[in-house]
Amino acid sequence: MQVNWGQGGLCDMTMMKVASTVNSDSNQAASNEAAQAAQAATDPTDQQPAKRRLVRALTSRLSFLDLVREDRDANYGYGQVGFRALAVHRLGVWLDSDEPAAWMKRPGNLAYGAASGYIARHYNIELPRTAKIGRRVHIAGQSVRVHDHAVVGDECVLRQGVVLGASDGDPSSFETDAPKLGRRVSVGINSVLVGDITVGDGAAIGPTVAILRDVPAGALVIPPKPRVLNDMSGYVR
Questions:
Q1: The model scores a pTM over 0.70
Q2: I need a surface site. Which of 41, 134, 136, 236 has the fewest CB within 10 A?
Q3: What domain of life is recorded for the organism (predicted)?
């Protein structure tokens, strides 16, 4: 995975090393799991359909790389900030799973820490590894903040300055006080979605909108019409 991180040479090297290791480890593990699934398919005591078990085994080890490739296409290439932020997020999620070998955890987490710090400092994008991010998500710009436990569905678009946050600072409810976006939700520039709210599939949020309640599927939310509060012509020279 050739990623040009500009001045972030450390991020470039760490991501390339992790991707190389993932390739070899994933191929070997996928072969082992496929063989186990094929053997389990003949076991009459297993209640799950054999076809489902085999498909799951063949795809489980490829999920990380497939997601990264989809992110690259959805964000128009390796050089875009959206792809870089999502690639680091995918790495963190993969490291938290049971897929990587034990010896990969420490160097992988060091690489993740360096890369996520670079993303936060240079692009002002915070995309925690604990957030649930769907497939083919497009982050179109910088200064995007996502709640630690937010849910973003497949093919959503988050534009410049979008914030998915909590409605208050109560630690006891922080985990559940997070927005949930359905599939193909479009969020406009500088819009803010806060609290335990749900935005339905296909909804479109306009620019500079504050969302504090649920939005139904397919809805269009736009900011109020600008108002002229005073005639300022007398102040114009």
A1: yes
A2: 236
A3: Bacteria
